[in-house]
């Protein structure tokens, strides 16, 4: 049996770390005794008690143990759910700092920390045969590529699932489909580069496991919002692991990031630090519950046997506790410093900002992020809500350095294009970066605080948004009771697939209107992967459990016209700084925008509040008080005249008073893309956006600038 030693004279990091002599093991636990369990390739277990403890960190050194070693922990201590204590040495636990995880969860009574017949007593069933193993990982040999470093104002996000994007791509070799290596393949990268996005926002890639109820139904947690390892890339997305190389997911992930960086693409991770896969009191004991239940989870003060649940999953991570905060911050630094990622989108981020139970923008987590020399410099995007509390919807309340998924943008834009009354003023506010939410002078936030989106993974795709009034989630085997009923969608007259040419034309126009609004608006646009070419989930608005053709991209049915329109829109945005303003328009810059009625007169308060008003024109002057580049050069631009027609009939627009005639040409028409290049302004077709431009030289001469 391998001897266990303590190495004096050096600090002990958490997690297993390998050096040429062996491996140092360390784990944080409030238990009475921690046992390291080593497994050979046949599954035989050797147990070694960790001999030393500093605070709540137990540690020791095992000579001769190197990369590839499978291991876990067992923790002795009191089992007293009434006091929030759930130690049970019969349960093999994952290392919360494991860099790689191998194996699957096999559900059964062995996974429960408590006795089924007597929940106040510990289970005596050993769980080792039913849980994954942590793996010791050596240093990665992948050379780091230089990072692209786009500012938020320059960023165009593309939300995508590693597996779904490549699972059926005909130009990606079959062994690489659905993997990190597949996403790094030229065929995948070329699509992203040609489309023009600047960053991929990957659905969760932390190691995750499916819930038991999904396994019982023959389904799985496809989206991955059920994390069990915050340092480990998900093994199921690794071609190397498929090929029989346990732990190969680490280098494969790094190689993917480097390939994307080399192509000029940033990588943002969707991370789930609000809960874990262990669920509520009746859930499995896999890791955190058995190590230190009171440290890692929020417990009900009145009854610590119960979990506070602001996530809808049965538990919520305790971001008040130093051990949990350290784990989160260590994970974030690891993914930036060693795995190369460029930012994070925080799922149900309101839970992370709960100080003593209530949300606060001054919570400890936000303070740690703000002062961290690594994490404070990357992209930080919050999903600004959680569930079940009076303060669960915190849109606009995150700290100044954060951006937020703007649910108000989604709701307003969806309602506007399905012709709801009284939305013109709100629509204009969303178009201009939502200053009502993010423009308070005392906070110094910018339009880039708003991450604008029309569709995301959770809900309808864009094609389904214009094809279905109702969700069709029968494949989820929940009686169509799951998923949101508030879709704000419109099927254009027919539910689901149709051969009616008029309906198909209308649906195509609606999609183009949504895309034009998204790319025209100030803030950070986020495109749901596949919306650029008409991907459908056949009306399923909650495809979290569908690891199949419902969720995967169908590369055989690409709408080439829609793809070309989307690509041109992204190029238009990236080519013109007036669509990427880094400041809200106040003072002299307010002249940058002038709003007009279709008749050409200035909009009045009465016009804005008219519940039946659905059309407006906006003049964007590209030469008045422009932003400046990094070298201080003014970012002068063309003038643009944008016509927005929310009516279901064509609307003629007059050239506004004071706007010189001539030299205007159409650069985008969501109703009829064939009009691009023609003279403008022109009538705007039903439910459409028309963008006209005037050459910069003309704008410069008019303002005396050269």
From TrEMBL:
Matches recorded under InterPro entries: GH, GH13_cat_dom, GlgX_Isoamylase_N_E_set, Glyco_hydro_13_N, Glyco_hydro_b, Glycogen_debranch_GlgX, Ig-like_fold, Ig_E-set
Pfam families in alphabetical order: CBM_48
Molecular functions per Gene Ontology: amylo-alpha-1,6-glucosidase activity
Annotated keywords: Glycosidase, Hydrolase
Cited SUPFAM superfamilies: (Trans)glycosidases (SSF51445), E set domains (SSF81296), Glycosyl hydrolase domain (SSF51011)
CDD domains attached to this UniProt entry: AmyAc_Glg_debranch, E_set_GDE_Isoamylase_N
Glycosyl hydrolase family 13 catalytic domain sequence ranges: 159-573
The keyword Ribonucleoprotein appears for this protein: no
One GO term (biological process): glycogen catabolic process
Region feature (Disordered): 1-22
Family (UniProt): Belongs to the glycosyl hydrolase 13 family.
Stored PANTHER family: GLYCOGEN DEBRANCHING ENZYME (PTHR43002)
NCBIfam families: glgX_debranch (TIGR02100)
The name this protein goes by in its record: Glycogen debranching enzyme GlgX
